Amino acid sequence: MIRAAVAGASGYAGGEIVRLLTNHPQVEIGTLAAGSQAGKPVTSVHPNLTPLADRQFTETTPETLDGHHVVFLALPHGQSAALARQLPDDVVLIDCGADFRLGDEAAWTTFYDTEFAGTWPYGMPELATADGPQRHQLEGARRIAVPGCYPTSASLALAPAFAAGLVDADDVVIVAASGTSGAGKSLKPHLLGAEVMGSMSPYGVGGVHRHTPEIEQNLSGAAGEPVTVSFTPTLAPMPRGILATCTARIKPGVDLAAVRRAYDAAYAEEKFVHLLPEGMWPSTGAVLGSNNVQIQVAVDAHVGRLVVASAVDNLTKGTAGAAVQCMNLALGLPESTGLPSVGVAP
Ligand SMILES: NC(=O)C1=CN([C@@H]2O[C@H](COP(=O)(O)OP(=O)(O)OC[C@H]3O[C@@H](n4cnc5c(N)ncnc54)[C@H](OP(=O)(O)O)[C@@H]3O)[C@@H](O)[C@H]2O)C=CC1
Ligand SMILES: CC(=O)N[C@@H](CCC(=O)OP(=O)(O)O)C(=O)O
């Protein structure tokens, strides 16, 4: 059995990792570490985790995380690097924070207020590049940076078009709506029930959201040239889910059939990323609780733009599902082991 620990297990991302691990046939759940909730019963924070009713959160130290094959880090940004440095090299460390996602130190410094910590292999197995999906970088890896939730949705939506050379690199617009769990569970006055119920609002507007450089990094890798994007996130009155609507200027002569061929080639063999049949459009409800990504494409010939919509559950494929998928790849297990490919509906 693989012994796995989770730091930040009392948070939304950590709780979702634990939920998935309870259904993983080859994982034994070890330390569940927390901050302020250390010492409390696991089910006092995550009442859905019934099989762990006799477990308590422990403190987060290198000692409590010792003795595991895998350690998941689901801590606030900037807190993973210090802890990671104190854990052994041979442990598989999977970081759900942003600390090790970016390759460009200048981009990090522009968008984050902590010191640049370095770059780990990026945990998006299906991400298209000119040489095919990048999952081979994760096979046998001992350090993996799990993508942000918006970058998961937007990058999987657009990367096949860039890898196939169907769109221009300098005219990409992404507007994405996220459920409130994307913001974590610490108290934020603008996220009280009264503020978000029955209301939608953009935030991080004007190219300042920290996921902008992460999306650009992913799409530039697919395109083989620098890609710039205009990204606007929106808060939606729902607990989970992201719907990203992405558009890009399409190259002359590219039609819908060529677009669908490119997306089919990228995702036909993928278990979790699905190009929907023509006429169906992604919805957050259809991917809820699953590791799936739904994608649909259209060509708006009137303005010469490719339109791609994608839906993910921000806590599953957007974080914890990707983390477990990466663990499977790192350890040589079948990639989908323990991961739900069927959502809950309605
Ligand atoms: N929510 C999402 O959809 C996504 C989240 N992520 C990333 O995952 C990480 C966790 O996010 P999320 O779960 O949403 O955040 P939460 O605020 O819900 O959880 C944060 C976790 O970190 C713990 N923690 C905070 N400070 C400390 C500390 N000093 N020492 C030990 N533990 C500490 C908290 O413990 P306690 O509550 O006990 O104090 C809690 O378990 C972040 O880096 C986030 O960016 C990535 C993609 C999507
Ligand atoms: C709704 C909401 O607030 N979402 C978060 C993104 C969550 C995410 O993907 O996480 P990382 O912080 O790990 O990059 C935000 O916009 O900051």
Automatic annotation (TrEMBL):
Residues the record marks as active site: 149
InterPro entries hit by this protein: AGPR, AGPR_AS, AGPR_dimerisation_dom, AGPR_type-1, NAD(P)-bd_dom_sf, Semialdehyde_DH_NAD-bd
Cellular component GO terms, alphabetical: cytoplasm
Family matches, as CDD domains: AGPR_1_actinobacAGPR_like, AGPR_1_C
Keyword flag NADP: yes
Domain of life where this protein originates: Bacteria
Protein's pathway: Amino-acid biosynthesis; L-arginine biosynthesis; N(2)-acetyl-L-ornithine from L-glutamate: step 3/4
Key words of the record: Amino-acid biosynthesis, Arginine biosynthesis, Cytoplasm, NADP, Oxidoreductase
Gene Ontology BP term (one): L-arginine biosynthetic process
A GO molecular-function descriptor: NADP+ binding
SMART domains referenced in this protein's UniProt entry, alphabetically: Semialdhyde_dh
Domain Semialdehyde dehydrogenase NAD-binding: 3-135
Reactions catalysed according to its record: N-acetyl-L-glutamate 5-semialdehyde + phosphate + NADP(+) = N-acetyl-L-glutamyl 5-phosphate + NADPH + H(+)
Top enzyme category: oxidoreductase
Predominant place of localization: cytoplasm
Keyword NADP: yes
Enzyme Commission designation: 1.2.1.38
Subcellular location as annotated: Cytoplasm
Function: Catalyzes the NADPH-dependent reduction of N-acetyl-5-glutamyl phosphate to yield N-acetyl-L-glutamate 5-semialdehyde.
Similarity comment: family membership: Belongs to the NAGSA dehydrogenase family. Type 1 subfamily.
Record-given protein name: N-acetyl-gamma-glutamyl-phosphate reductase
Organism of origin: Calidifontibacter indicus
Taxonomic placement: Bacteria, Bacillati, Actinomycetota, Actinomycetes, Micrococcales
Designated gene of the protein: argC
